[in-house]
Amino acid sequence: MKITHYLYNAFLIESGDKKLAVDPGGLMFYYFRFSPLIPKSEWNNVTHIFVTHGDPDHYWHADRMAAVSKAPVICNKTMVQEIDGKYLLLGPRDKGVAFTTEFKNHHKLSVDETIEVDGVTITGIKTTHGPLTVKLGPFSKTLNPGRDERIGWGAIGFKIQLDGKTLVNLGDTLLHKDEWESIDSPDVLMIPIGGNAVHNTMDIPEALQAIRIMKPKLVIPCHYNCPAFFSKNFNHADEDEFRNELEAMDIQYAILHKGDSIHV
């Protein structure tokens, strides 16, 4: 199995005839760019598309990838509404909470629900997106997830079982100690660590708590030191600090930068 990371929470997971794309979003307004995180050259052979929530850096290109690949989209049931007899998903590039986009093939699930999609078993995991504070010079604005707010809409994590391996991807989330105790020793855990300054996800100490609970065989940190707005290191986190803590815990890890891969 090959896992490739493309910044934020964008991953490709390849095993046999399966090619799973997680969060095919775009650059987060980086100098007004919304370029795809997962290269278009990879889209054609994607077999499954996972969406952890509706923020632009996770979801911006989901419909475009689906149109090219014809792959099913797996997401939280809150990402879908039935309107005038059609099942419409949250519009990837619409403002606010607008259900405007018809995906030809989608599968929705809830937390703790398990479904099987074309040979891949998927269980929904409880996650909660934290508030996002954006600073531009002396000005700052905090976006809080809520009933009518786009930020963090549809947040859910995934436990993915494929070819005898269990992978966990949490998307953007705060810590959930009690809800994650049932996740036991996954082969791979993809976990955000960049919440120290921005607070929309766990920071390093909180991620380490989650790792102690789940006891994964391999950890891949994500959603930190990302290009966003006018910064090259939005969601800053200290890789060396995280690496040292994992080594002290005797946990295997892979620090993957843009386009880096690991075989597991």
Automatic annotation (TrEMBL):
Name under which the protein is recorded: MBL fold metallo-hydrolase
Gene3D superfamilies for this protein: Ribonuclease Z/Hydroxyacylglutathione hydrolase-like
Superkingdom field: Bacteria
PANTHER family: UPF0173 METAL-DEPENDENT HYDROLASE MJ1163, UPF0173 METAL-DEPENDENT HYDROLASE MJ1163-RELATED
Domain Metallo-beta-lactamase: residue ranges: 7-223
Organism: Lentiprolixibacter aurantiacus
SMART domains in alphabetical order: Lactamase_B
